[in-house]
Here is the input.
Amino acid sequence: MNILVCVKQIPDPAGPQELNNDNTLKREGKLILDESDSYGVEIALQLRDTAGEGEVTLISMSPGEPSGLRTALAMGADKAIHVVDDTLHGADALSTAKVLAAAVQRAGDYTLVIAATESTDGYTGTVPAQLAEILGLPSVTFAKSIRVEGGKVHVDRQTEAGYDVVEADVPAVVTVTAGVVEPRYPSFKGIMAAKKKPLETLAVSDLGLDLSSWGQNIVSVEDAPSRAAGEKIEDDGEAYLKIVEFLEEQKVI
Amino acid sequence: MPDHIADELAMFRQTLREFVSAEITPHALDWEEAGRLPRSLFARMGGLGYLGVRLSEASGGAGRDFRYTKILVEELVGSGSLGIAVSILAHAEFATKVVDRAGSDDLRKRFVAPAVRGELIGALGVTEPDAGSDVGAIRTRAVRDGDEYVVNGSKTFISNGNIADYVTTAVRTGEAGPRGISLVVIPTHTPGFTAAARLRKIGTHASDTAEIVFEDCRVPAANLVGDENGGFRLIMQGFEGERLVLSVMICAQMRLMFDAARRYGLERDVFGHPVLGFQAWQHRLADVLTTIEAAEALTERAVDLYVRGEEANSEISMAKLFSAEAAVGVAHDCAQIFGGSRYMEENLIARLQRDSLAFSVGAGTSEVMREIIARTNGLVPPRKAT
Ligand SMILES: Cc1cc2nc3c(=O)[nH]c(=O)nc-3n(C[C@H](O)[C@H](O)[C@H](O)COP(=O)(O)OP(=O)(O)OC[C@H]3O[C@@H](n4cnc5c(N)ncnc54)[C@H](O)[C@@H]3O)c2cc1C
Ligand SMILES: Cc1cc2nc3c(=O)[nH]c(=O)nc-3n(C[C@H](O)[C@H](O)[C@H](O)COP(=O)(O)OP(=O)(O)OC[C@H]3O[C@@H](n4cnc5c(N)ncnc54)[C@H](O)[C@@H]3O)c2cc1C
Here is the structure.
């Protein structure tokens, strides 16, 4: 079973985040595999290993070095397609989806396209659904587990109340919720093998795309408002009741 | 350094850093309390191939060089519990490297390969109650009887002694002195083998340390590593790697202490400003950092020579000597900025400080390092003919 996994390479969220003059995020330093995508990679590897055949192919659009892709290759993915093109600077979610769709179409036969529910840096959570639309495929979101059987993909789809059991024809685009599996650590063998695995670097022209504008123009970026002071509850021996009441109001308990 | 090696080293470091912070650091205090590492940690790390980075491919290792060991050591020290690094390295380097290098294929298959996978745990047994620095004076005896050796004697201060499945042991098979010593792998399930009660140390608590006793232990003669009576040379060659491991460990430990001191010095207010507002403390930590950089540079040079296969005994001894002696002062200075909390068990700096006290002894004392430096640098006058 061939599986394509869209993985985003992002600047380390633990490091300092800086904006360019045009308000896009600086991506010059070392890019890492978005942690959100490590769950999709893990699920894809498990599906491939259960099927006993097929390949996991990574697809990513980002500037710079493929260091995050190497991490996913070290985890066990078979090969990668990296779209790197200066003209993509400042691409918005729809343009990103168009580029990824063109890369998917080059990748040969596949059963599933897996992505994360949302990325860590941009987190619009819109790219995968757009991708499905462009490819004309079913889109299943918020998967906590995925099984492929009898020409269909069976997904347990997380909801607030529990989960829905969803079925769709393959190929399909499925997004995976963060935290639903434990992504494996790259083994030392995996690390050694990673640099020998095929990694194709493509420009926009290789994808047969010719979009003169990539969409968005970020006018300004404001700091999030600092949080207002919280409510103080004096403990007169009954404070716990007020806390319980507050938590109930917030629907936390 | 070629790019692909730099990439591989960087990815190994990144992977280990994540592994250590998620799978090791959260358990460090429990393991210190238990006085040993769980077998499951060896199995987990072995399964991921992290224990065999410098062991040969013939033994199931990755056949890489000491730069990978250096990363392993540094990242394990990052857990804040030195004993964890000691226990893992006693296994992944001290007990196994010499068998990998000088042992038969059969020994590699029976002892090194399972150690690489983390299925068997190894220890190195050289020191005895009456012979430490003077390795040539060991008394544990192995007498050949048919196709077996019968071993009698005892060892002490043996890291992993209680948890090990085998001990790579220095034994006397011949004449008195260095020329009568051999290395034999002794499985700990051998009748007559006992690991006496765990030794209670003042630091490195996560590393188990034992006194072990051999009473008529019968070991297959095939467990001999290299040539009979050729053990002393193997042990001395092995010590180079061990001392380099120690040097790296010490440098990483000093960095950890410096970082903790700097953070605290910027945070803690005294007399209305951070402690580091005092020039006295700025200068003190400037000295500390300079010392650490010097130790790292010396260690890096020793690692570089060693990796290139050049003669490095003198540089390794200098790196080990300089770092170990510096660590005591660095530990004191870095702890002092914490005031009273430097003395509190729950404080990382308190543990780092006491863990630093074994550095001037382990893998050869500072005095022995000076002996080597003197000998390898023409400082010993020739004996007068009599
Ligand atoms: C202030 C600001 C500055 C920005 N600067 C830049 C910039 O300089 N460069 C830039 O590319 N974007 C930039 N963006 C993000 C950009 O506008 C879109 O948001 C982004 O391309 C869509 O991604 P997302 O992270 O919102 O995707 P989401 O829809 O949240 O992503 C969901 C999943 O889709 C997949 N996916 C999404 N993007 C990719 C990708 N590129 N490659 C592979 N898989 C992917 C992943 O699996 C991901 O987890 C910026 C956004 C803002 C708000
Ligand atoms: C935490 C820890 C873990 C250890 N793990 C192991 C292990 O796994 N396996 C193992 O085999 N051993 C292990 N050891 C033992 C260690 O290698 C020895 O303690 C060390 O070699 C010193 O030997 P000794 O204790 O017998 O001291 P001694 O050799 O008795 O030394 C006593 C003093 O004499 C000094 N001295 C010795 N020779 C000279 C000289 N030529 N000139 C001047 N002074 C000299 C020494 O420096 C020291 O100050 C461990 C020790 C510790 C503390």
About this structure: Chain A has a mean pLDDT of 92.
